[in-house]
UniProtKB/TrEMBL annotation:
One of its GO terms (molecular function) is diguanylate cyclase activity. Residues 205-327 form the GGDEF domain. PROSITE patterns: GGDEF. This is Diguanylate cyclase with GAF sensor. It comes from the Bacteria. It holds the Pfam family GGDEF. One of its GO terms (biological process) is cell adhesion involved in single-species biofilm formation. SUPFAM superfamilies: GAF domain-like, Nucleotide cyclase. InterPro entries: Diguanylate_Cyclase, GAF, GAF-like_dom_sf, GGDEF_dom, Nucleotide_cyclase, Rev_trsase/Diguanyl_cyclase. GO terms for cellular component: plasma membrane.
Length: 342
């Protein structure tokens, strides 16, 4: 039980311990192999749960294995399978002679040569997260109380580990999301921009960056109230996601400012995209946009500074304008503009 205690401490530290759990299951159960099977959602990501509705999970997938590597093996959620039976019933199932059981015949684990199998649900509250599969290469007629209790304990700890992982993912998403608009926030943008530049450097494709600012937002806020101002920000964020292309990235920089990345988008095309965005500002309001195209060598900060300088130039030109900074203009003296009449 000392090994279990060490495992529990590691699980609660937040480390991904799937492999460690399975090593403990195999060792303490005297088994030949052990596997963790989780729900896989329609996007191919582990973590869907039965409580999230039938569309949440499209299949079951082996996410970790020890002894025999079955990682990546998928079982459709509607298949005749011992895995599916256990996740649906929520009850452990021991097969002393799985080869004679029709539930086991369709499972790819049958090809591993397992002579006896214990499949135990991994549950958190009323939700079934997956199953632990323990396999022996020699036939055993029954699972001892001690072995069963050990697998039951480790299934509970597996649920804790998976819950911690889900919580961590949610916290990470929350930390990277603007609470008002639902867009990525400044922190997320600052993480994404270097990666976008690295991709542009690798592919040689142009990368356009823009800073958009809602014109006279303070006046709008003071006139109609903060709730109306918040609603305008939310609606503009929605317009951004509708107007921009699939690969484009938009984030709320702060206040009424938004930053936009247009990968593989040359300046002329970026101008047209941003003009469509400018023309779609809700409530009859307008916005000014500064545009800069990565010059192939500058840092993320330098690129954003050029776009920001172009934004200030757009404001100086009368607002409701897309102003494009020429390459190499650190202070933004050379500006091409696209006015509201274009």
């Amino acid at each position: 039980m000392l090994a279990v205690a060490r495992l529990v401490r590691r699980i609660r530290s937040g480390v991904d311990v799937r492999g460690t759990i399975l090593e403990a299951v195999r060792a303490l159960g005297g088994a030949s192999s052990a596997h963790l099977v989780e729900y896989e959602d329609a996007c191919g990501s582990p973590g869907a749960r039965t409580g999230e509705g039938p569309a949440a999970a499209s299949s079951l997938v082996v996410t970790a294995s020890v002894g025999v590597d079955m990682t990546g093996t998928r079982t459709p959620i509607d298949a005749t399978s011992v895995y599916v039976e256990v996740v649906r019933s929520g009850r452990p199932l021991f097969l002393a002679d799985p080869a004679a059981d029709p539930l086991f015949a369709g499972d790819l684990l049958a090809a591993s040569g397992a002579r006896s199998v214990l499949v135990h649900p991994v549950q958190s509250g009323d939700a079934t997260l997956g199953v632990l599969v323990v396999a022996w290469n020699e036939r055993i007629d029954s699972v001892s109380d001690q072995r069963a209790a050990t697998v039951d304990l480790l299934a509970d700890e597996t649920a804790l580990a998976l819950d911690n992982e889900v919580l961590l993912r949610r916290l990470e998403r929350t930390a990277a999301t603007d609470a008002l608009t639902g867009l990525p926030n400044r922190r997320s943008w600052e993480a994404d921009l270097p990666a976008l530049i690295a991709s542009a450097r690798r592919t040689g494709a142009p990368l356009s960056i823009a800073v958009a600012d809602l014109d006279h937002f303070k006046v709008y806020n003071d006139t109609f109230g903060h709730q109306a101002g918040d609603d305008l920000l939310r609606r503009f964020a929605a317009v951004c996601t509708e107007v921009l292309r699939e690969p484009d990235v938009v984030a709320r920089w702060g206040g009424e400012e938004f930053v936009i990345a247009l990968p593989a988008c040359p300046e002329a095309h970026a101008q047209r995209v941003l003009d469509r965005l400018r023309a779609a500002v809700p409530e009859g309001q307008t916005c000014s946009i500064g545009l800069a195209v990565w010059d192939g060598v500058e840092s993320p900060d330098a690129l954003l500074a050029r776009a920001d300088a172009a934004l200030y130039r757009a404001k100086a030109l009368g607002r409701d304008t897309v102003a494009s900074a020429a390459v190499g203009s650190n202070s933004g003296p050379s500006i091409l503009t696209s006015s509201s009449d274009s």
